[in-house]
Amino acid sequence: MKEQKEIRTITEVTRATEGAGQLMDDALTALHINVPEIRGMGLVSAEGLPIYVSMPQEWDSGGMDEDQACAMVSGLVGIAETSGARFRKKDFQKVTVKYADGYFTAMRVNDNCYMFALTGGEVKLGVLYMNMEEAARQLAGVI
Fold first, then answer.
1. Which residues are CB-contacts of 11 (< 8 A; sequence separation ≥ 6)?
2. What is the pTM of this model?
3. CA separation for the pair 53, 142 (Å, rounded)
4. What is the pLDDT of residue 24?
5. What's residue 67's pLDDT?
6. Using an 8 Å Cβ cutoff, are 118 and 107 in contact?
7. Which one of 37, 45, 74, 137 is least enclosed by Cβ atoms within 10 Å?
8. How many C-beta atoms lie closer than 10 Å to residue 119's C-beta?
9. Which H or E run contains 85?
10. What is the mean pLDDT of each run of 10 residues along the chain (143 residues)?
């Protein structure tokens, strides 16, 4: 006996997509509220394509666009994953780079997506990590 596939209407698919979009907005808004030192953040596909990006104006005026930012996130994560593999470390979780005036952190959401945040130097890294991990848990099933 053949298994019948569930057929969903366009309205059902649209509602599901809108629900996922709302969950993404809620999770990222909460992250920004809980960590006000975040100056830019986003979600990037494993291929380096933007899913969601919130960039400060100075990035855009400096010639940095969303595609370039996401490609750099993907490249940095790729370096971290490759380095980990060479050191026999498994399951990349996050990478943080410290600059004179802040931090850049990229974190795994799931096999298909990474989250990133650019913060000022006054950020408490424990608070940032805790809130990014919570947002990643919320987003893992919908992205």
1. none
2. 0.80
3. 17
4. 87
5. 86
6. no
7. 137
8. 23
9. helix 66-86
10. 50 52 87 94 91 75 76 90 89 92 94 93 96 94 83
- The domain total for the chain is 1
Averaged confidence pLDDT in the chain? 84
The answer to whether residue 110 is domain-embedded is yes
What pLDDT shows up at residue 66?
Answer: 84
Under a CB-based contact definition with an 8 Å cutoff, are residues 93 and 80 in contact? no
Angle at 66 between CA 53 and CA 91, to 5 degrees: 65
Asked if 100 contacts 109 with a C-beta cutoff of 8 angstroms, the reply is: no
Distance from C-alpha of 46 to C-alpha of 60, rounded to nearest angstrom: 23
Q: What is the CATH number of the domain that holds 56?
A: 3.30.450.30
Q: Is residue 3 part of a domain?
A: no
Tell me the C-alpha distance between 86 and 82, whole Å.
Answer: 6
Q: How many helices (H) and strands (E) does the chain have?
A: 4, 5
Q: DSSP 3-state helix, strand, coil percentages of the chain (rounded to 5)? A: 45, 25, 30
Give the structural domain span for 58.
Answer: 10-140
pLDDT score of 106: 95
Q: Residues, the chain, total?
A: 143
